[in-house]
Write a structure and sequence with these properties.
The chain is an alpha/beta fold. The protein contains 11 helices and 10 strands. The strands form 2 sheets. Strands 1-4-5-6-7-8-9-10 form an 8-stranded mixed β-sheet. It has a two-stranded antiparallel ribbon with strand order 2-3. α7 runs parallel beside α9 and α9 packs antiparallel against α10. The longest helix is centred in the N-terminal third of the chain and has 15 residues. It binds iron/sulfur cluster. Iron/sulfur cluster binds next to loops.
Length: 302
């Protein structure tokens, strides 16, 4: 919650959760992914540039007498990169003026928004500190992306990644286990591993699909069009994903939606992760459900 901007909660990329948060938009300009609840009950809006700048100055004053001053920042919320380059540049410049030790500014980004920028735009934003974009890739399987109304193809996602690599902007990739449902579980995982093996993210963030009560996916679950995988199958998907990943990066599977929190460098420590997962896979679905209920208390109601 940031008073005057977000009343309840705000979404922030996991790899950047300890950064200083800068409110830029409320919600996501796209808002059509059927599993997502970010725009639930609210309309996408862009905060006034002067209010954003005022907020940055207020935070700088707050840190004046503190021993610690932040040097990493995150622009909130769903996809700030959809905004005009000059608007973003103004925010980045304001951060730099007020926090001269700024290392980088990160944000969530849709591949589509990356593709809408020119290479010159991206280079300009990078020169002002924009780096470590958190890309919501979710799946490397086109059918899965289409089913969930992701609005981009794997080819487009890869093109966006190549653009970032060309201009030197670092990125992480968000991947969602369970997104293929029961029917497309294997294809979802194998194609996602194949996709990731063509990329060079500083981190892969692995989360589990959660069916939020207000998300459109609920209707597909009710009609039987989407059958969610079991907890045991989630572990099996993660094993399959890891077995097929070949890239060198940080594997971050510590998100609270995960059954077993895991993080390490891959491929160096991949076998350690697989060992832990295979151990967890020995539990029955009933046992896993019992443990998860303690954590969430809602699984059987979804
Ligand atoms: S792009 Fe991201 S934030 Fe926007 S609707 Fe899709 S999942 Fe939600």
């Amino acid at each position: 919650m940031i008073k005057g901007f977000y009343d309840k909660y705000m979404y922030t990329p996991m790899p950047e959760m300890h950064n200083e948060m800068i409110p830029v938009t409320d919600g996501c300009s796209y808002g059509k992914c059927i599993y997502c609840d970010l725009n639930m009950g609210k309309k996408f809006r862009v905060f006034d540039l002067e209010d954003i700048k005022k907020y940055i100055r207020k935070r700088a004053r707050f840190y004046e007498d503190k021993r610690f001053t932040p040097n990493k920042f995150t622009l909130l919320e769903g996809n700030p990169l959809c905004l005009k380059t000059e608007f973003l540049a103004e925010i980045l410049k304001e951060i730099k003026v007020n926090f001269p030790n700024m290392k980088y500014v990160s944000c969530f980004a849709r591949s589509e928004d990356v593709l809408r920028k020119t290479k010159e735009d991206l280079k300009y934003l990078k020169s002002l500190g924009l780096d470590r974009l958190c890309l919501g890739i979710e799946s490397g399987d086109d059918e899965v992306l289409k089913f969930h109304h992701k609005g981009v193809t794997t080819e487009e996602q890869l093109k966006a990644i190549r653009m970032l690599e060309e201009v030197g902007i670092d990125y992480s990739c968000y991947i969602m286990l369970g997104l293929g449902g029961k029917e497309r579980s294997r294809e979802h995982i194998l194609n996602t591993a194949k996709f990731l093996n063509k990329t060079n993210p500083f981190e892969i963030v692995v989360v589990n699909l959660v069916i939020f009560s207000g998300a459109n996916l609920v209707d597909y679950v009710k009609s039987g069009e989407f059958k969610r995988i079991s907890l045991k199958e989630q572990i099996e998907e993660e094993i399959l994903l890891l077995e097929n990943l070949k890239i060198h990066t940080i594997y971050n599977g510590t998100h609270k939606t995960k059954i077993l929190p895991l993080t390490t460098m891959i491929p160096d420590r991949k076998d350690d992760l697989l060992k832990l997962l295979r151990e967890e896979d020995k539990k029955t679905n009933r046992e896993l459900l019992k443990e998860e209920k303690k954590k969430w208390g809602v699984w059987d109601k979804e």
